[in-house]
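Design review, sub-item: ligand-bound model
Attendees: FS, YL, KQ
YL presented the inputs for the flavin mononucleotide complex:
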Amino acid sequence: MVFQSGMTLTEFRKEYTMSGLRRRDLAADPFTQFQKWFNEAVEAQVPEPTAMTLATADKSGQPSARTVLLKSFDERGFIFCTNYLSQKGLELENNPHACMVFFWKELERQVAIRGTVTKVPRAESELYFQARPVGSRLGAWVSQQSTPVSDRAFLEEKFREMEQKFPGENVPCPEYWGGYVLAPITIEFWQGRVNRLHDRFRFTKQTDKMWLTERLSP
Ligand SMILES: Cc1cc2nc3c(=O)[nH]c(=O)nc-3n(C[C@H](O)[C@H](O)[C@H](O)COP(=O)(O)O)c2cc1C
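KQ shared the predicted structure:
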């Protein structure tokens, strides 16, 4: 494929030269390492540092992926919020295995986390919901996420209805909206290097407090 500029797709390739990742730089546990890299992404003003690709799969193993925002992370795992009746929600209901991938390109870094997802307690979902701007809360009432709609006017009309139903700031959290926490089984930290000899370290959970750390071939 050649673009108007005369460029071909392969010319977009980039050398990664910014830094390296050595075993001695790694924290003993991947949560501390994630916190460190996340802080560095924020300091580097990576746009939308919480944005990541979330992959799920249906019962037959057919995968699907989309971008979602990380809401929080703690010793339980990595938390995102969504519509429980969306495609991803229904897939997770039947198959709780999921993977999230952060690409912080300004730092030439990728973090890939695989694990198992459960719903967070209801009260916690409500806190995340109430932290959203009122328009986004109304939007959650409007959207039967991932189902076909006739046109945009339908959505805008439903939004007006919801504004009337929930005037002011008091918009409750729909039953079908809430958080999931992905409890990690593996977390891989990837730092781009020259000549495609990237640094990759994978933490694999052994017990609650023990992680195996291995360097992977790029
Ligand atoms: C930057 C960005 C952030 C997004 N954040 C979320 C999110 O936090 N939760 C969510 O449900 N959808 C989010 N979306 C929309 C999803 O990518 C997706 O379209 C939606 O969740 C429906 O996915 P599904 O049909 O695979 O379930 C975001 C999209 C983008 C581009």
